[in-house]
Design a protein that fits this description.
Blueprint: H1 8-11, H2 16-24, E1 46-52, E2 61-66, E3 69-75, E4 81-85, E5 100-102, E6 105-107, E7 114-115, E8 121-123, H3 132-135, E9 143-147, E10 150-155, E11 181-187, H4 191-195, H5 203-208, E12 215-221, E13 224-235, E14 238-249, E15 253-259, E16 264-274, E17 277-285, H6 288-291, H7 296-317, H8 335-343
Antiparallel strand pairs: 1-10, 2-3, 3-4, 5-6, 6-7, 7-8, 9-10, 11-17, 12-13, 13-14, 14-15, 15-16, 16-17
Bound molecules: FE2/S2 (inorganic) cluster and fe (ii) ion (FE2).
FE2/S2 (inorganic) cluster binds next to loops.
């Protein structure tokens, strides 16, 4: 068993449905975004997951709220997902609710104006002429791709083109590997605070109850960050040795591979809802012969342990204040190099990573 940890009490008794509900619930009595300095962090740019592929069938429309915006996502007859601002240019109906797919276009529920994937109105069924302002594509264009059975969009506050492509993993489509086992959380904190967790070497012992500090190898490379750790994992068969390789691709995509214990690939989507809220999704796949055979319990324990660690972190993240100048000691991991690395995703900070030239304050913040 892992050592009892400080957040034990917060999570005590949470199991099954109650635990799943706690993972996505609102937090009561937490301080405002301003008190927690969250309004000082812009939304990072990058590829972000907005849905699993199997959550969007051909002809389906989904309302979304990410990046501080109301959005409508749909899948056209050609199988392609498309996403535009949710509010109709005509009289402002939210097209995610009651909107329909017509061919590859999105039809507004109010007066049936039709939109293409660029947000241009292509048809007004009862008018001879489409108003020119409506016929123009939207300023914000969403690049969209499907990879690892996930739908990802490229967010950039100044609408710049994608600067990299997301990573893809063959195991996800390998018939010898399991279908995804999925988990999700809404964390009441910004992407940066969560991403920092991976380099925070000291917290593993205190909040996750590992017996020692893990020995890390870190690498920061352009928009990617990787680490590998020799780790001891708690399993029903006691503590076992293994290797954890971990990587992030921009701020929104991350993966973890375990070897030596029960082989596991976890593909995560980390998507900002607004400046102080983040949607986290974990999808696990494992070799079927391990996940469904006599090793099944061990494979399951691996998944449960990863989720348990996220639950423990969430207790802190939900109320954590962003400290722009933290006090750091020698036993901490490379937290300051990490922050420098992460600042590259803040377009509003420009190249020096210090000056906030233009910062979006989310309307739902507070
Ligand atoms: S509000 Fe959308 S068509 Fe009128
Ligand atoms: Fe953690």
């Amino acid at each position: 068993m892992a050592e009892p940890v400080a957040v034990w009490k917060e999570l005590e008794g949470l199991r099954g449905d109650a635990l799943n509900e706690w993972r996505v619930s609102d937090v009561r009595n937490n301080a405002s975004y301003e008190e927690r300095n969250l309004h000082t962090l812009p939304l990072p740019f990058g590829w972000f997951m907005v849905a699993y592929s199997d959550e969007l069938e051909v002809g389906q429309v989904k309302p979304l709220y990410y990046f501080g915006q109301d959005l409508a996502l749909w899948r056209g007859e050609d199988g392609q997902p498309r996403m535009i601002e949710a509010f109709c240019k005509h009289l402002g109906a939210h097209m995610g609710y009651g909107g329909r797919v017509s061919g590859n276009a999105l039809e507004c529920p109010f007066h049936a104006w039709e939109y293409d994937g660029q947000g241009a109105v292509t048809k007004v069924p009862y008018a001879k002429k489409i108003p020119p302002s409506a016929a123009r594509p939207c300023k914000q264009q969403w690049h969209i791709t499907e990879v690892n059975k996930q739908i990802l969009v490229w967010y950039h506050p100044f609408n710049e083109e994608p600067k990299w492509q997301p990573d893809s993993f063959d195991q996800v489509h390998d018939p010898d590997w399991t279908e995804y086992d999925k988990y999700e959380w809404i964390v009441h904190g910004p992407v940066q605070n969560m991403a920092e967790n991976g380099v925070d070497a000291a917290h593993f012992k205190y909040i996750h109850g590992t017996k020692s500090f893990p020995e890390y190898d870190f690498e920061f490379d352009g928009h990617k960050r990787t680490a590998s750790v020799d780790a001891k994992m708690q399993t029903p068969k006691g503590e076992v040795d293994g290797t954890i390789a971990y990587g992030t691709v921009g701020p929104g995509q991350s993966w973890t591979k375990f070897t030596g214990i029960s082989e596991t690939l976890m593909v995560a989507g980390i998507t900002p809802i607004d400046q102080g809220k983040t949607h986290i999704r974990f999808a696990f796949t494992q070799p079927k012969k391990e996940a469904e055979g006599p090793m099944a319990n061990l494979a399951k324990a691996m998944r449960r342990e990863i989720c348990r660690q996220l639950d423990q972190d969430k207790v802190v993240w939900d109320r954590q204040k962003y400290k722009p100048k933290p006090s750091i000691c020698d036993g901490d991991g490379p937290i300051l190099p990490f922050r420098k690395f992460f600042a590259q995703f803040y377009a509003e900070w420009g190249d020096d990573g210090k000056n906030i030239t233009k910062l979006k304050i989310d309307k739902k913040a507070g």
